[in-house]
Amino acid sequence: MALSKLDNLYRQVVLDHATHPHHHGSLKQADHRLEVRNPTCGDVLNVEVALKNGKVSDIAFSGSGCTISQASASMMTDEVIGKTPSQIEQMVETFSEMVIGNPPTNYEEILGDASILEGVAKFPARIKCATLAWKAVYQAVKNENGQASAGIMRHEQL
Questions:
Q1: Which fold has domain 3-157?
Q2: Which InterPro entries did the record assign (predicted)?
Q3: Residue 91: which H helix or E strand, with range?
Q4: Which residues pair with residue 138 across a beta bridge?
Q5: Eight-class DSSP state of 146
């Protein structure tokens, strides 16, 4: 496929997730919650997660932000359902490496459809926007004792 067609596909997928986000809203039965803010651009995300048998059984996000942060949050929600906190940690590390231009060899296998955001590496100013939701979901679920976690964190604290 020609490079311009790939760029066009990338834009279409990102726009579709940003304008029609998956798992957008809130959960009635969330075990873990976290609000994160990216002070450099004003993105705000609320992530709510329900765990069952040590795995994400449901997830939702809300908030406001740029196209990249909203699309990334939408893709993240699709990919973490059914995953354990340790699997999510691996996904976050893989995603973070991918968007800075150092993807591991198996990144597509680990990230699924979210691997399309590899193109963010071309736009360093958007890396924090893309990683915001991924880092937030891990911070929200890493509390292993089953107690609801809540808080507000700035992106630089993640």
A1: Sufe protein. Chain: A (3.90.1010)
A2: NIF_FeS_clus_asmbl_NifU_N (IPR002871)
A3: helix 85-99
A4: none
A5: S
Burial class (CB in 10 A: 0-12, 13-18, 19+), 121: middle
What number is the average pLDDT over the span 25-33?
92
Decide: 44 and 37 in contact? Cβ < 8 Å.
yes
- pLDDT tens, 70-93? 999 999 999 999 999 999 999 999
Distance CA 63, CA 61 (A): 7
Residues β-bridged to residue 154: 37
Amino acid at 72: S
Domain boundaries, the chain: 3-157
CB < 8 Å & 24+ apart, contacts of 16-21? 16/71, 17/70, 17/71, 17/72, 17/74, 17/75, 18/67, 18/68, 18/70, 18/71, 18/74, 21/61, 21/70, 21/71, 21/73, 21/74
Alpha-carbon distance values, 36 to 42, 49, 96, 112 (Å) = 10, 14, 17, 24
Quick check: 36 and 135 in contact, CB under 8 A? yes
Task: Check residues 152 and 105 and name the one with the higher pLDDT.
Answer: 105
Give the Cα separation of 49 and 127 in Å (integer).
23
Per-chain mean pLDDT for the chain = 87
Enumerate helices (H) and strands (E) in the chain, giving the number of each.
Answer: 5, 4
